[in-house]
Amino acid sequence: TINIPWPRAGMTDSDYIFAFNKVVMPIAYEFSPDIVIVSAGFDAAEGDPIGENHVSPNGFGHMTHMLKTLANGKLILALEGGYNLDSISKSALACVKVLLGEPPGKLGPIIPSQDCMETIHHVIRTQSKYWNCLAPVYYATEDRLPGQLLVDMAEMLKMYRTKNLYSKYKLIPVPLSDGKLGQRFTNLACCSGDLYNKEVVFFFVHDMADFRADTRATSNSINVSNSYMIDTVYLYIETILNNNHGIIDVDIPPIISQPKNENQDLRELLIFLWDNLIDASNTKKVILIGAGRGCRSLTGLISERDYSVMEKVVCTIMIPGPNEVPSVSKRADLSTWYQS
User: Fold this and answer.
1) Which residues form the Histone deacetylase domain (predicted)?
2) Fewer Cβ neighbours under 10 Å: the N or C end of the chain?
């Protein structure tokens, strides 16, 4: 059983063909079936009101054409349905033509969406445990041999970054309690040593640096000499400090075992930093900068410390990446202030 769970409607020929090329057909060749039976529902067809996807008749024809290469061509398409008779007729006709030996109609350029590529990556990570044709993109920590030391890559990056921020910019880690905040975020929040004397403070919340690794196809081991950490945050920090402003820099770690608590944990951290570093200081003006997942956590801070935030924050900058900028809707006056 191989599931490919699309995260949304609106998937196209490119997404389905990409999934076939990367997952469906490699596994099918390795499995080497004696016969292929397709539950030929056309819910994904263009025009289907429930599927809401955009697979063309030519797209279904190409998938049928690929499946014909299995099991000496022993292929059964058992019509199941769909919810638009016109879409079903055109799609089924394209498949039957391929069964009768006609080539499938031409497709446009295959350019899968970002959602498709992320989904296929996760599917390969799961299925590579069971199929040799898929390059392994996981490491089963429960299968490690006795005597092996496992060090989380995020911990390594965190230690390097903390050392670098201090040596280059004299930013110091904010002391946190021994409770949940300390266990989760120690050394991820740093600030200027003279923060309390700064009139302008930048509160910068962003994702952890990006790590680009060159991996070996058969083992998933990293070729260290061709792997890099890409951190675009340093330019922001240098600019802020060169203008004699203060900074609170928060590096958001990767999501771990309980992502449902992620936003709440980050919100509690930002509230702690606000109460102890901003409200308790002589700071007159605060500029909030959120990047990536930092955007949503900052709006949580705004909602929780509304009056204090409205009094001190003079500008909010959101750099959301692929995510939409989150809104603030706790009160009408707060929402109006945030939008302006």
Assistant:
1) 1-99
2) N
Q: Which residues pair with 37 in a beta bridge?
A: 76
Q: Phi then psi for 256, rounded to 5 degrees?
A: -110, -140
Rounded to a whole number of angstroms, the CA Rg of the chain reads: 26
How is residue 171 annotated by DSSP?
E
What Cα–Cα distance (Å) separates residue 26 from each residue in 21, 199, 215, 239?
7, 61, 20, 50
pLDDT given at position 257:
44
Beta bridge partners of 48: none
DSSP alpha helix (H) spans, the chain: 13-19, 25-31, 57-67, 85-99, 114-127, 153-169, 180-185, 233-242, 262-273, 294-304, 306-312, 332-339
In terms of Cα–Cα distance, which of 75, 316, 120 is closest to 205?
316
Which pTM value belongs to this model?
0.67
The pLDDT of residue 322: 66
Mean pLDDT per 10-residue run, the chain (340 residues)? 95 98 97 97 96 97 98 96 95 97 95 93 90 77 66 81 91 85 84 90 90 76 83 90 95 63 80 91 90 87 91 91 72 86
Amino acid at 60: F
Using CA of residue 140, residue 142, residue 148, residue 153, what is the dihedral sign?
positive
Per-residue confidence (pLDDT) for residue 258, from 0 to 100: 46
Place of tokens 């994904």: 44
Greatest CA separation for the chain: 80
What is the C-alpha separation between 65 and 193, in angstroms, rounded?
Answer: 65
Q: Is 102 left (phi over 0), alpha (psi -120 to 50) or beta?
A: beta
